[in-house]
Each structure stands twice: as C-alpha cells, then as structure tokens.
Specification:
- The chain is of the alpha+beta class and about 120 residues long.
- About 35% of the residues lie in helices and about 20% in strands.
- The termini are far apart.
- It has a 4-stranded antiparallel β-sheet with strand order 1-2-3-4.
- It is built from 2 helices and 4 strands, in the order αββββα.
- The chain has one domain.
Length: about 120
C-alpha cells in the first residue's frame, strides 16, 4: 500500500522538475536569441514559451490601487520576477491612470539592479 504522504512528496517533486524544465527552456531560448545578437530586452516570447509559471523570486511589486483590494478594475503596477538567471519586468504605466487599459510594458534583463530601476521608473 502506498503511503499518502509519500505519494504527495512524489507529486511535489514531479511538479518541481516540470517547473524547472519549463523555466530552463524559457531561459535557454532567451540565451540563444541573445547569442544571435537579438535585443531580447523587449522580445515577445513565442506562444509555446511564456513565464506563466510561479517565479523563482519576486524582487519588486508595487501597485497604485486607491480603490481597495476588492476592486476588479485595472490599476498601474510594476513587478520584477526572477526566472532562473533572467529578470522579467512588466507592468502598466502610472500615466495610464486608474481603471484604464493600455500602456503596458515588459523588459527582460540579466541585471537585477537595472530590472528594479526600470520597474520603479514606470510606477513613480
């Protein structure tokens, strides 16, 4: 008989392996594009690759939301997330205003300080 705790641990290990493989594929693709002298800072990932997994680390997050946590509207925000050795910055510019769409931005870099500086510049 299989112990439920052992089965749960096996599942968690399997999920971690799949997640790490996915993040490595994304990072490897960005690395390959970079070696081709492509400016990857503003690149759109192919449909089969995307940083839709939980990041290794969230470095920075700020949102301008005077409405409160339950408001479903769009709000300006900036975030920096680390996936492997890449930092994925994204957000909606402060100038877009509360409950507006558009003015979204993204930025890939290997430089942590540059990533945070860029994110802060879009929200301040």
């Amino acid at each position: 008989m299989v112990d439920c705790c052992d089965a749960w641990e096996d599942l968690k290990v399997g999920q971690k392996t799949i997640r790490e493989k996915r993040i490595n594929e994304d990072s490897d693709w960005l690395d390959k594009e970079e070696t081709k002298s492509v400016d990857v800072s503003q690149i759109a990932l192919p449909d089969d690759l995307s940083y839709d997994e939980v990041p290794d680390e969230t470095i920075f997050f700020e949102e301008i939301n005077p409405c409160g946590i339950l408001c479903p509207g769009n709000h300006p925000f900036s975030t920096v997330e680390r996936f492997g050795h890449w930092y994925y910055c994204r957000g909606r510019n402060k100038e877009a205003g509360i409950h507006s769409s558009g003015m979204e931005w993204r930025f890939f870099t290997k430089d942590r300080d540059l990533a945070v500086k860029t994110a802060k510049s879009h929200i301040e």
